[in-house]
């Protein structure tokens, strides 16, 4: 068996999907979370640790071939909580990987790193045309994640792939997600590509399915070898009956971060 990939946040929503799908793509997993994962998959190693504990993470990283870092708070919260779990946590994961001699890290960034970026008047939005423009403290932590990834790639020669994930849910539940959905199968394909791409260096790519209504340029992710299979359009009719056609002058549809950009959006969401 090949050396395992260390998967942080393994008990979470995306972690659970990856634990199901990555082994079928040939990846052995060392699953880590701050809470125990409730089921054991054949061949899977399991660890309980807090990603902000650098000593524990150094131990966890020993002998791993790569890291997929998902752990952290998955939406808006207080500055104290976000800066600890999401910024300190990402630092600790990257530093532990470096000390363990791991040369590839895949980071779960988010569209909210660039949430206030408007939809282009025409054409698709490339990652390079969406520099940091966070919509929340959560988004600020994703900007810090991408910056830390850039530092570790440039300074230490590591391959660091940042996935600006859209809406990773079993199915789209709003008309915004007709553009931003990343299906479970495509979550697996995207991470598989980020782990497999030869020498990506530092890369930032959108994490989105092949949605008919997507306005985020898929070219950079595809260049890694990602081949999305799903399209949220299959859910469009029912969602449009419920919500109406998306109004592109509404910030929810006009800005990358959707409802996170609204003044009324806060840690309660
Ligand atoms: C995210 O980054 C969140 O983790 C998720 O809960 C959704 O809010 C998603 O973005 C989204 O933009 O739909």
Automatic annotation (TrEMBL):
The keyword Transmembrane does not apply. Residues 5-183 form the NAD-dependent epimerase/dehydratase domain. GO terms for molecular function: oxidoreductase activity. Keywords: NAD, Oxidoreductase. PROSITE patterns: ADH_SHORT. Gene3D superfamilies: NAD(P)-binding Rossmann-like Domain (3.40.50.720). CDD domains: SDR_e. The keyword Oxidoreductase applies. Belongs to the NAD(P)-dependent epimerase/dehydratase family. This is Uronate dehydrogenase. It comes from Geodermatophilus ruber.
């Amino acid at each position: 068996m090949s050396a395992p990939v260390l998967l942080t946040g393994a008990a979470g929503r995306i972690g659970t999907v990856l634990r199901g799908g990555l082994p079928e793509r040939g990846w052995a997993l060392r699953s880590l979370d701050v809470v125990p994962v409730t089921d054991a998959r054949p061949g899977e190693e399991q660890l309980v640790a807090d990603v902000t504990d650098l000593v524990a993470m150094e131990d966890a990283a020993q002998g791993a071939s790569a890291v997929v870092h998902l752990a952290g708070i998955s939406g808006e919260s207080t500055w104290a909580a976000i800066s600890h779990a999401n910024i300190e946590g990402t630092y600790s994961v990257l530093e532990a990987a470096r000390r363990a001699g791991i040369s590839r890290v895949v980071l779960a960034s988010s569209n909210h790193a660039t949430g206030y970026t408007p939809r282009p008047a025409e054409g698709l939005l490339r990652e390079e045309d969406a520099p940091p423009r966070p919509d929340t403290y959560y988004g600020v932590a994703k900007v810090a994640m991408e910056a830390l990834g850039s530092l570790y790639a440039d300074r230490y020669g590591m391959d660091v792939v940042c996935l600006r994930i859209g809406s990773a849910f079993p199915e789209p539940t709003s008309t915004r997600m007709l553009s931003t959905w990343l299906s479970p199968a495509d979550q697996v394909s995207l991470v598989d590509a980020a782990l497999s791409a030869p020498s990506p260096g530092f890369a930032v790519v959108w994490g989105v399915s092949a949605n008919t209504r997507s306005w985020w340029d898929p070219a950079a992710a595809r260049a890694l070898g990602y081949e999305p299979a799903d399209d949220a359009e299959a859910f469009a009719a029912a969602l449009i009956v419920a919500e109406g056609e998306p109004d592109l002058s509404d910030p929810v549809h006009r800005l990358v971060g959707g409802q996170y950009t609204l003044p009324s959006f806060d840690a309660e969401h």
